[in-house]
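lol ok so funny story. i was supposed to be doing the assay writeup but got distracted and ended up predicting the structure for this chain instead. priorities right. anyway since i did it might as well share w the group, maybe its usefull for someone
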Amino acid sequence: MKGELEKSVANDLDEKMVADYLRHHADFFERHKELLVELRLPHEAGAAVSLIERQVKMLREQRQQLKNKLGSLIHNAQYNEELSQRLHQLTLALLKAGDLKQLFDVLSIQLLDRFNADAVAIRLFRAPQKGYTGMEFIGQDELHARRFERVFSAEEPLRGRLSPELLEELFETEATDIASAALIPLGDSDKPLGVLALGSYDPERFHQQAGAMFLRSLGEVFTGVMNRHLASGAD
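and the output, tada:
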């Protein structure tokens, strides 16, 4: 028994020495090509495959993996470029809006038509102009402050599923159809103006990893343009 154990340990050590040697002498088989004919590796199906055939197979698999990764990178780059162009066009359209109502209409139409949103809601905490009675104004009472507090304290726009109560307040008659949503702060925690909500019938459309940078940029652009109208309305 002891002899068999010692023999097994010796074999393991010999294999390790051979593996280490080959690892540090990668050109070994170039200098001893005749061994490639004699070496065989067992195939998954049981057939014998030469070492060089196995290497070719592995290289092809690695090449395909790299090709797939490159394709994914190119697709993402093209998508981000397209998204950047659409955001640029949206910004230009918002800047052309003559008043707040037109501004809100342009934003909603653009997001529905060009950004694949199924529902858009703008909710303001304070009246943008004296006597303003638009549906976007909900007032900044204690209830609303608590309900949307997390939107302004989060590092990124909130995405995912919302509570039925919040969905109803934001999307009203469409609430039951909204399966995922994104909540974008307008303004900041020191001076919150309101929230912009995007809704989708697809539960995977606004998941936790979905386009935080784009959503944040969208909120900043819209806040900046809206502030221009708020300033002119205060004059």
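Residues 56 and 62 are 10 Å apart (CA to CA). Residues 51-95 form the longest helix (45 residues).
back to the writeup now i swear
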